[in-house]
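Dear colleagues,

I hope this message finds you well. In preparation for our joint manuscript, I am sending the Carrier domain-containing protein (Streptomyces roseus) sequence together with its predicted structure, so that both groups work from identical material. I would be grateful if you could confirm receipt.
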Amino acid sequence: MATTTDVLAEITGMLVEILGDEFLIAEEVTMSTSFNEDLALESIEFVALAELLYERYGSEVDLMGFLAEKDMDAILAMSVGDLVTHIGHVTRASLARTSQAAAEATAKATASATRTAG
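The corresponding structure tokens are as follows:
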């Protein structure tokens, strides 16, 4: 499972891809970096970030859905750390569901094999 540091590094890489190396070389991206004040991300750049997040994490990390749950002030105040935390919650929940499904499938297969053998 990816750590907070791993996810922050991935988001930073995505931001470099969107905004360009020159911008981010001067501006270190941290958990407290804001998308609005520090990075001046525009809506089209949020769309590009959403696409990169989808490519990396799949449909479970829905940036536009995450933003839709916030009011304008919360969107303007959102930090990279807020997104990293969201990704952590979503990916942990997804991993838990996958583990649960695998355990259930194993239990069913074992029960089926026991019935067949007996």
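For the figure legend, we might mention the following. The longest helix spans residues 80-117. The mean pLDDT is 81.

With kind regards,
E.M.
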